[in-house]
Amino acid sequence: MSSTDVPTDTPALVELASVTQRFGSRLALDRLTLTVERGEVVGLLGPNGAGKTTVVNILAGLCRPSAGSVRWDGREVAFPFPPETRRRIGLLSQETALYDELTAVENLRFAADLFGAPRRRVAEVLELVRLDDRARDRVRTFSGGMRRRLAFGRTLIHDPDLLILDEPTLGVDIDNRHAMWGHVRHLRRQGKTVVLSTNYLDEAEALCDRIVAIRDGVQIAVGATSQLLGTAGRCVEIDCDEGAVPSVRRRVEGLGGQARVEVHDAGLTVHLRGELAAEAVATAALETGMVQGVRVRAADMVEVLDALAAPACA
Question: Is residue 235 a contact partner of residue 272, using CB atoms and an 8 Å limit?
């Protein structure tokens, strides 16, 4: 189920309304509004220090906002969250916080007992995160990726209504990263509701229905993942001969249609928008005879955030 399947008269599962968070003199979040519908995966996208973890902590009830409100099912909840609200949340923080001297089974049984979940959930979760063959091994023998998967499984043990994943693939290798993606996709197919904090564009594109883009504590854009990530378009990097940058720039800018041309020491980066094709830019640059190489690539996160912020700054 996606957000489009939710009846319009059904309140959102969770809402942050004009939330501001200050830590002393530092403004961590500035009037951020976030709506999470049932059955959707919402991505919090932004660089380190953008405020994503602060949003996660407020959603999880771990941090009381300086201003604004948090609503569940259309009703404002007080801080600290009451037990019935906390039981609806599964949080995977950046710190795994597992018990190293206990086995995988013992870690999950302990979590199950805390939440009043049935013990049969332990075997189900271990199979889901592909650790059933290491169930009786002590966690201190696990790799970083295995520990992350076990911590992810712990968030599922009580079958929460909302999964909050704070940079779930931080510091794991490529195999475990894709394994984590598979787990999130499985939850998505089951109609679970997920908030995922990430600074990886490919992760947001692969997993999220919607993105809330945050920079310096400010929400700069919100919308469908494909729409927002397509805003920046592709980039053409042009390596120029010494002293040839002005001439190549004039030739490329004569095509029209690009978002902007960025000049650096060795050449140009052309940020494409609209109908202008990367092939046309590459051909025009090569025709000058003053180019050493041309590369076409996707925009990186900084470039995407710049593109998303541009309309508000215009």
Answer: yes
User: In this structure, are residues 252 and 261 in contact, taking their beta carbons and an 8 Å threshold?
Assistant: yes
Exposed / middle / buried, residue 280 (Cβ in 10 Å: 0-12, 13-18, 19+): middle
Cα Rg, the chain, nearest whole Å: 23
Asked if CATH classification 3.30.1490.20 holds for the domain at 234-298, the reply, yes or no, is: no
User: Domain spanning 3-224 has what CATH number?
Assistant: 3.40.50.300
Looking at residue 264, its amino acid is: H
Q: What is the pTM assigned to this prediction? A: 0.84
What are 136-174's pLDDT values in tens digits?
Answer: 999 999 999 999 999 999 999 999 999 999 999 988 889
The Cα-based distances of 309 to 4, 132, 235, 274 in angstroms read 26, 45, 18, 17
Model confidence pLDDT, tens digit, residues 29-39: 999 999 999 99
Give yes or no for a contact between 217 and 27, defined as CB atoms under 8 angstroms apart. Answer: yes
